[in-house]
Amino acid sequence: MRLESNWIIRPFRPDDAPAVRRLIEAVWHEHFHGHPDSFVRDFIYSRLSDVDNAETMYADRALFLCAIAESAIIGTGAVKRLDDRECEMVRMFVAPIYRGRGVARAIADGLISFARSAGYDRIRLSSNNALTASHRLYERMGFQPTAPWDPDGETYSRYYALRI
Question: Measuring CA to CA, how many Å separate 111 from each of 39, 48, 55, 145?
């Protein structure tokens, strides 16, 4: 089924939190519900407080974007401040039927543009090892593999950085 590109990207609004949470949980469930390691399987469910508190978590030189189609949230992505020079790209999720249509790329481009205008020199991100399509996108955008910043993080994730 071919869908038209009838989506837009806009900043997160406080009333988006429940729908954003549902999207993130659904995508995580899609990829990891049968994972043999409960840490991976349940990882996302206890780590969504930033969505519930997005107005404060993404207020300081940060940005949370939503892709919208037919009044539904079909994609998300955010950058959060780490320090004066570096930010982290997080919450990159796209609904299955909208993948391959440029939604993730548009969100990432918007976040990189914001990071550049906010004065950051570097964006970092981590992505679960199983999300190979995401890795291809990040690499096409110029992100380079980097050492993990989480202890033993390479067990589950790949780490990337982009100089901007």
Answer: 29, 20, 17, 19
